[in-house]
Write a structure and sequence with these properties.
The protein has about 280 residues and is α/β, with parallel strands linked by helices. It is about 30% helix and about 30% strand.
């Protein structure tokens, strides 16, 4: 049994009647404490697995670090069940650890209104100037590629997934978690530790809806194109337009809605063969 799933017993019902007990598996959910230089800055509820990536991605998308150069080491604390990760920084003095301890940093809670929140994020990181072009059929093919690789979801039916693709639609990495934000942080953390960030010219596909936080995290990683199988929120659309990101929602069944950055989605141009005119 992998750590991402937990066995359980259940009582099945059909047509209003109990049909008997059965074995099942659930998506595991446990707390993970993220520490920086030994100080606890956050506790997230996540599916165990890829914890170092989760911590790295969390620190990047929450603005604690800006690149892989800011990391010195990430270790799993072995005490107890190992549900803690400690991050050592390359320059500890560059981060106000007291401030992080007093106030768990959350970019999405930086203001009292939508525009204040957007402005606060874009003061830290500017809108993306990424000229990548994606063909519509490339985006429309992504959900099938995601579904084919969602192994734990097929077992439990209870996980979100985020997948990273290149501009041609090649799947580079996929991460699953009970929390959609965690799944994205794990994916971004993988790219960070692989020294691939910022992710210019890349696409991220979300198995659920696109919220402000998901757009903000993608923006922090430099991802210009965000596609979601479900709907976007109103603030996600506002942020995408302000941050110069492409946002497509309801990407499924051969159709999609593009809410921002449509200039990056360019249909394939088919050259017509010319024939000499008849006199």
């Amino acid at each position: 049994m992998t750590p991402s799933v937990t066995p359980t017993r259940l009582l099945r019902f059909a047509n209003g009647r109990a049909t008997g007990e059965a074995d099942d598996v659930l998506a595991a959910e446990e707390p993970l404490e993220i520490r920086v230089e030994g100080r606890s800055i956050a506790v997230v509820m996540r599916t165990p697995g890829h914890d170092l990536e989760l911590a790295a991605g969390f620190l990047l998308t929450e603005g604690v670090i800006k690149s892989a150069k800011d990391l010195f080491d990430i270790t799993t604390c072995v005490a107890g069940r190992g549900n803690a990760v400690d991050v050592a920084l390359a320059r500890p003095g560059a981060v106000d650890l007291e401030k992080l301890t007093r106030h768990v940093f959350t970019s999405s809670s930086c203001g009292i209104c939508s525009q204040t929140s957007i402005d606060a994020v874009l003061r830290v990181r500017k809108p993306l100037a990424d000229r990548v072009r994606i063909e519509p059929h490339t985006l429309l093919a992504l959900p099938a590629a995601l579904a084919e690789r969602q192994t734990t979801f097929h077992t439990t039916g209870g996980l979100h997934a985020c997948a990273l693709f290149d501009r041609a639609g090649k799947l580079l990495a996929l991460r699953e978690d009970v929390g959609r934000h965690n799944a994205l942080d794990k994916l971004i953390g993988w790219a960070l530790l692989e020294k691939r960030t910022p992710l210019r010219g890349h696409i991220v596909l979300l198995s659920g809806r696109a919220s402000f936080e998901m757009m903000q995290k993608s923006h922090a990683a430099g991802i210009p194109v965000v596609a979601a199988i479900s709907a976007p929120s109103s603030l996600a659309v506002e942020f995408a337009r302000a941050s110069d990101q492409t946002l497509a929602g309801f990407v499924r069944g051969g159709s999609m809605n593009v809410y921002a950055g449509a200039q990056r989605i360019v249909p394939r141009v088919t050259k017509r063969s010319s024939s000499p005119r008849k006199a």
